[in-house]
Amino acid sequence: MESAPTTDRTFDAYAPLLDDETRREIRDGATAVSDLRVAHVNTTASGGGVAEMLGPLVALSNDLGVDTDWHLMTAPDAFYEVTKAIHNGLQGDGDPLTETMGATYRETVAENAAAFRGDYDVVVLHDPQTLGMADALHERFPETVFVWRCHIDLTDPSPAYLDFFDEDLAAVDHVVVSRDAYATSLPDVGTTVVHPAIDPLTAKNRPLDELTGDDAAAAALDRYPVDPGRPLLLQVSRFDPWKDPLGVVDAYRQVRESVPGVQLAFVGGMPDDDPEGLEVYEAVEAETIDDPDVHLLTNLPDAGVNVMQRVADVVLQKSLREGFALTVSEALWKETPVVGTDVGGIPLQVEDGENGYLVGPEDIDATADRCRRLLEDDALAERLGEQGRETVRRKFLIPRLLADYCDLFERVTD
């Protein structure tokens, strides 16, 4: 167990994005829980949406007087191979959970639970990697409120994987999910829906003309192999079978039949806690190796992701299952229209025909059709893009996430 690096961020920096009433409400909410000590626990400080949210969330919490720490589990590669299988199993797929897998998981979480220090009022355990600590931590700190924040899609979990966490779920006091539907399979425990959010002040989301130094250099489009003079389809996500990158390739090939010169780019990270990523990357590479207009870009700096999302004509999120997909909010914030699947948290962000398009998760024809509409109608793409940015401004920025957590902490400690 180790401490995560802190982000340099103040609440006042977000003032131009918030009206006076919203700023007052957030400050009042933080004041109401300023006597609490809070800890967040996850597995990585970078490489995924959870880490991207926790950095500014912890910084803003402390800036507004809520004493908040952020701890990282330490774990071997074998643990992450197991937790990837658990992730898949809780989303309804994956290999059977073996005794060896269970033992690997339990050994690592026990070591981290034993190493956990701190006298906290509330501890938020993020995702299945940390959930296994709940029972041991509850026994050591009986006065602490333990919250499990589940960021994945629990609509139809494999029963064996859900049963594996019976005692851990019994030890948590509250569960936070991204949609009501994710809580229906859980045992009788209090749940709250909290939507994830993006940080508009990071190098990934700031206007390009505000970037300086290394970030500005990373945002130079000539560093990347795409041609800005030709139509570009883009998917930003981990190389993960749940993101259906091969389905994206199929849709692109249909679009190419009627839109000359169209390009496709994948921008994907390779997080330390996702060992499956390389296998999926290699499958996509093998499928597209003979097409010079398909680009696979890995581990771009945040400013590089930023410029790619802005230069794209359409951003896809063709997930088969999806906890939320912060990449959708990122694209909408940049006024880039999105074609996403009607699964998980995507329809919480995309209203079909208003700020983007929703399609069935297996519907390649519809995916290609909506991409063509946007590529062939600039006025439509502009209208949907403008509405998308306003949607994110109102609903999916990090100050709102802070307000939701403060409200949650007040309720669970009352």
UniProtKB/TrEMBL annotation:
Residues 40-183 form the Trehalose synthase N-terminal domain. Residues 226-390 form the Glycosyl transferase family domain. GO terms for molecular function: glycosyltransferase activity. Coiled coil: none annotated. Keywords: Carbohydrate metabolism, Glucose metabolism, Glycosyltransferase, Transferase. Belongs to the glycosyltransferase group 1 family. Glycosyltransferase 4 subfamily. This is Glycosyltransferase. It comes from Halomarina oriensis.
